[in-house]
Amino acid sequence: MGDLKMRAKLLTAFAALLSLIAVAHALGTPPSASGLWQATDEETGQPTGWFLIRDHDGVYDGIIAKMFLQPGQDPQVACVRCQDDRHNKPWLGLEIIRGMKQEGLKYEDGNILDPRDGSVYDAIMTLTPDGQTLVVRGYLGISLFGRNQYWKRLPDTAFNELDPSIKPAARTHKSQAPSKPENSARR
């Protein structure tokens, strides 16, 4: 009977130790903005777009990964008002976030494009500690003169809903395995 109590105590202590190790590992790996995010309309709560954020050796960018169009909107809309290399590029797949550098849960020194009018704003992104909400702020000059959007992280299964033209970019997400380049001469 004494051996059984001792084994139960040891097993409980071992389980507690494993739990502490798991928590320490989770706390030691800060969340990242990399992934698929959904923006919603502040008034209706309906989704307005999905955005894929990728890490390129510490510099983050983001593209429009899925659009939720209103009836009558052109699905082939292009950035006709863009003044840079994005001029006349289709919105779907358009890089709207550029040059963000991570500092803890904050991402700075980048910019964000509004493809509706071609305006490019300075930007800050702040990730919540649980990694589930990304506050995206575009501003002019100083961040006081700006506007926040609150994006919610989508599960990895949402990658399955992306347009095929976007899916190859999704493979850069850390939970996705990279693909091997295809040999176009072979068919």
Structural class determined from secondary elements: alpha+beta
Q: How far apart are the first and last residues' alpha carbons, in Å? A: 71 Å
Shape: globular
The sequence of SSEs as H and E is: HEEEEEEEEH
Number of domains: 2
Major sheet: size, sense and barrel closure? Answer: 8 strands, antiparallel, barrel
Give the spatial strand order of the biggest sheet: 1-2-3-4-5-6-7-8
Rg calc: 22 Å
CATH architecture of the largest domain: Beta Barrel
What portion of residues is helical? 10-25%
- Estimate what percentage of residues fall within beta strands: 35-45%
Enter the CATH topology name of the largest domain: Lipocalin
What is the number of helical segments per DSSP (H or I, 4+ residues)? 2
Q: Count of DSSP E strands?
A: 8
Residue-averaged pLDDT:
82
Ranges where pLDDT stays below 50 over 5 or more residues in a row are: 13-26, 168-187
CATH class of the largest domain: Mainly Beta
Secondary-structure map with pairings?
Blueprint: H1 2-28, E1 35-40, E2 47-56, E3 59-67, E4 95-103, E5 106-114, E6 119-127, E7 133-139, E8 146-153, H2 167-170
Antiparallel strand pairs: 1-2, 1-8, 2-3, 3-4, 4-5, 5-6, 6-7, 7-8
Feature tags:
2 helices, 8 strands, 17% helix, globular, 2 domains, disordered C terminus, eight-stranded antiparallel barrel, single chain, alpha+beta, 187 residues, Lipocalin
Detailed description of the structure:
By secondary structure, the protein is α+β, with helices and mostly antiparallel strands. The protein folds into two domains: 1-30; 35-170, Lipocalin, CATH 2.40.128.520. 17% of the residues lie in helices and 36% in strands. It has two helices and eight strands; from the N terminus they run αββββββββα. It has helices spanning 2-28, 167-170; strands at residues 35-40, 47-56, 59-67, 95-103, 106-114, 119-127, 133-139, 146-153. An eight-stranded antiparallel barrel has the order 1-2-3-4-5-6-7-8. A hairpin with a 6-residue loop joins strand 1 (35-40) and strand 2. The longest helix is centred in the first third of the chain and has 27 residues, at 2-28. The protein is globular, with a radius of gyration of 22 Å. The model is unreliable at 13-26 and 168-187 (pLDDT under 50).
